[in-house]
Amino acid sequence: MPKAASPLKEIQIRQAKSGFLFDGGGLYLEVTSAGTKRWRFKYRFAGKPRLLSLGNYPTLSLAEAREKRDQLRRILAAGSDPAVVREFERNAKENTFEAVAEEWFAAKMLRMSESHRERVRRRLEADVYPWLGSKPVHEIIPPQALDVVKRIANRGAVETAHRVLGIISQVFRYAVATGRVTSDPCRDLRGALDRKSDPQHFSAITDPDQFGRLLVAIDNYRGGLVVRTALRLAPLLAVRPGELRRMEWEHVNFDTAEWRYEVTKTRMLHIVPLARQAVALLKELHPLTGLGRYVFPNAKTPDGSRPMSENGVLTALRTLGYEKTEMTGHGFRASFRTIGAEVLGFPVEMLEHQLAHNVRDPLGRAYNRTTYLPQRREMMQRWADFCDELRAKAQRDLGAAATK
What we know:
The chain is α+β, with helices and mostly antiparallel strands. Helix content is 50%, strand content 10%. The protein is built from 15 helices and seven strands. The chain has helices spanning 10-15, 62-77, 82-94, 97-108, 114-132, 142-154, 158-177, 208-219, 225-237, 241-245, 276-289, 312-319, 331-342, 348-354, 373-403, and strands spanning 19-24, 27-31, 37-45, 48-57, 252-253, 258-262, 269-273. The strands form two sheets. The protein has a four-stranded antiparallel beta sheet, with helices on one face. A hairpin with a 6-residue loop joins strand 6 (258-262) and strand 7 (269-273). Helix 8 (208-219) packs across helix 15 (373-403). It is elongated and about 90 Å long.
């Protein structure tokens, strides 16, 4: 086969009918009698000839084919066989945790009920993929799997954490059966996750029906308007209790339906979109406390110079009969995070933005909590509407039970 005297030009490629066109450096174009044009890379490794297919023209342009050739030549110069490296990379991509989990889901979940499939899907996408999804399945070690489920347990959803650990284990057992790994790292985690909530974590109600009954109880709270409003806003805003009680009127914008403040832990600006229900509650309270600094002033300072006591919402919950092992002021955040992900299917990045968590994306960039406002605005309105739905359902259930 004669070699081209100079590098190829696009017009040569377009006009070629059959044969071989050489570009140099091992790159050439094979043109079949049917008109198919395939890029090839020819090289030698360990004294033996090798040949790789790079793709078809024009899907792979001349410039892109040359770039691939140069990448392969750099691998050769480093002393590796490009064919082996490419196969390893292909396998690594096909054997990430997410790829294996999706294969497992398609193979094993079809015979399950639709509700169960949806629940497993939400748990994978919200609680597992963001942290394990891109990792090669054979590189995942027990502490990494444990970190994933501890994040769930730390927001008060201990039972959900155990279920997610079971899902991860099933994926690994499938990976063992299909030859991707030799063992399930989750088997070494038995007993590592306590069935009871860790005392340092905040108790929370994460069952939708129970949460609906809590909302009904909150509506029936007979305390003062300041505490009652804070208690009713807590589930709608899902902010830290300290940030809620120190909410200032100057940071609330009724025109844009936003609350802007500096996050206590990170000192970063955070924007909370206010659903219609939240705006209505704040407008109801404004005539009472709007002339002062704080939305929820301390009862002992009539001039509003001090915020409500840190025990205000907590004490109200106790008055309603919810012990600290059942629900806390901080627990509203866990309720929002768990129900939002598992029931409403909110994207995990939107939930993390809304909670002002100091987390990073897969490229290591910190989330900017002033972004995604349109999506978060829609999410918070949907959440508030869903709370209304849960409240209405709980009221119907309680009414039906009372008539029996």
